[in-house]
Amino acid sequence: MGIKDLWDKITGNTGPKLTKASGDISTHSVKHLEVFTAEAMVIIELHAADVEKVLEIARSPTPAALATDTTTVIFVPTDRNVLPVKDPKKGWILPLSSTTADKLTSTPGDYEINPQIAFAVIQ
Known about the structure:
This protein has one domain: Gyrase A, domain 2. It has a 5-stranded mixed sheet with strand order 2-5-6-9-8. It has a 4-stranded mixed sheet with strand order 3-4-11-10, with no helix packed on it. The model has no long low-confidence stretch (mean pLDDT about 90). About 25% of the residues are buried. It is about 20% helix and about 40% strand. It is of the alpha/beta class. It has helices at about 5-10, 50-60, 100-105; strands at about 15-20, 25-30, 35-40, 40-45, 65, 70-75, 80-85, 85, 90-95, 110-115, 115-120.
């Protein structure tokens, strides 16, 4: 439990937390990136060749974005329990835990990372 988590527990601020992205965010260009929602789940569709970029972000201590001409997804490495956000100016801001590398591969298919995030890897 971090200091912020302890402070939230002491002050009673225990509601759902939203993912936040701040500071300089490096952007990686990808050929294909689509975002869909199904109930409370955000589904990111991307090419198998770009999965390694997601895994690099998951291992990194700083947020980074994948982007096409029309879509931007900012991934924030965190092991905190936070919810995805659709920011009207920045695009999707999604938490990416360190366990992502255990669940996501470049083999085409569907990968549920957690109850809020899934990846659809295409050829």
